[in-house]
């Protein structure tokens, strides 16, 4: 059960300390491209793995069309190698989808495929992209995952393999490409060792180091410090949830 720690009256932040789970949780992080989940959700994955949770990363594509000089075929080989190394360094299992960069189909077949992965991995928490994005693959992935969570829970869904799996929470990661409408809602503090492990691991990606243009590691490292300051932590990562989940029901004024 979560324990609420009330902050001083002048502060509007609520810190939630998660009690140790008697049964190891499984967290499934789903990104559109290899590197998306690892960058935006990686610090939490590293911290949860250190706590004994099972961590699974699902990259729907390799993101193989983003290199300024390499062909898609060449970059796909590199991205697969990098993603494998990053997952191993974090301690995560890795799955890679069958689709190509910029071509994730927002259709029922893809939803069924992702729902099958959810049933097989049986997560308690799914992390994915926010619903609005400048990148079509990101917004498509968000829509696919939301529906796949529902499909995975329902019995007798044609095209979805495995036993139904219910009770899955969905959190949306903070991503500079998915900023429209995103509001930080859940803050999770990350210990220094886990933060360092994530930073070292994700720097395996050439693009994350900034060598293809944008300094991703530097950006998310700085963002983690900002969110940490807001949450009264050294580092933190922030997530949003569905508006319907932002409801607090009380029997009396606290």
Please state the average pLDDT score: 92
The main sheet comes to:
7 strands, mixed
**Tally of structural domains:** 1
Give the CATH superfamily: LmbE-like
Shape: globular
Give the CATH architecture. 3-Layer(aba) Sandwich
Per the CATH scheme, the topology name is Rossmann fold
Strand order of the largest sheet: 5-4-3-6-7-9-8
Radius of gyration: 18 Å
Straight-line distance between termini:
19 Å
pLDDT < 50 stretches: 1-17
Spell the H/E element sequence.
EEEHHEHEHEHEEHHE
List the helices and strands and how they pair.
Elements: E1 3-5, E2 15-17, E3 26-33, H1 36-40, H2 42-50, E4 54-61, H3 72-90, E5 93-96, H4 108-121, E6 125-128, H5 136-153, E7 169-173, E8 186-190, H6 192-202, H7 216-230, E9 235-240
Parallel strand pairs: 3-4, 3-6, 4-5, 6-7
Antiparallel strand pairs: 1-2, 7-9, 8-9
Helix pairs in contact: 2-6, 3-6, 4-5
Concise summary:
By secondary structure, the chain is α/β, with parallel strands linked by helices. Helices cover 36% and strands 18% of the residues. Strand 6, helix 5 (136-153) and strand 7 form a beta-alpha-beta unit.
Keywords:
single chain, 254 residues, alpha/beta, Rossmann fold, 7-stranded mixed beta sheet, two-stranded antiparallel ribbon, disordered N terminus
Would you kindly provide a written description of the structure presented here, covering whatever features stand out?
There is one protein chain. This protein has helices at residues 36-40, 42-50, 72-90, 108-121, 136-153, 192-202, 216-230, and strands at residues 3-5, 15-17, 26-33, 54-61, 93-96, 125-128, 169-173, 186-190, 235-240. With 254 residues, it is an alpha/beta fold. The protein has a 7-stranded mixed sheet, with helices on both faces. The model is unreliable at 1-17 (pLDDT under 50).
């Amino acid at each position: 059960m979560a324990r609420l720690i009330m902050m001083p009256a002048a502060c509007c932040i609520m810190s939630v300390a998660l009690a140790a789970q008697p049964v190891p949780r499984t967290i499934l992080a789903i990104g559109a491209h290899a590197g998306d989940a690892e960058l935006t959700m990686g610090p939490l994955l590293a911290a949860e793995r250190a706590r004994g949770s099972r961590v699974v990363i699902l990259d729907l594509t390799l993101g193989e069309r983003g290199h300024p000089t390499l062909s898609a075929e060449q970059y796909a080989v590199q991205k697969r190698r990098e993603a494998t190394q990053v997952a191993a360094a974090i301690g995560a299992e890795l799955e890679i989808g069958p689709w190509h960069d910029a071509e994730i189909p927002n259709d029922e077949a893809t939803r069924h495929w992702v729902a099958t992965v959810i049933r097989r991995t049986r997560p308690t928490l799914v992390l994915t992209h926010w619903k609005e994005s400048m990148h079509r693959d990101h917004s498509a992935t968000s829509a696919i995952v939301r529906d796949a969570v529902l499909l995975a829970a329902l019995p007798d869904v044609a095209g979805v393999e495995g036993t139904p799996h219910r009770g899955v929470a969905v959190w949306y990661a903070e991503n500079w490409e998915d900023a429209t409408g995103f509001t930080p809602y859940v803050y999770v503090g990350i210990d220094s060792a886990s933060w360092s492990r994530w930073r070292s691991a994700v720097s395996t990606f050439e693009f994350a180091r900034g060598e293809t243009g944008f300094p991703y590691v530097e950006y998310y490292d700085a963002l983690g410090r900002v969110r940490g300051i807001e949450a009264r932590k050294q580092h933190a990562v922030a997530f949003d949830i569905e508006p319907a989940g932002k409801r607090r029901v009380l029997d009396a004024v606290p």
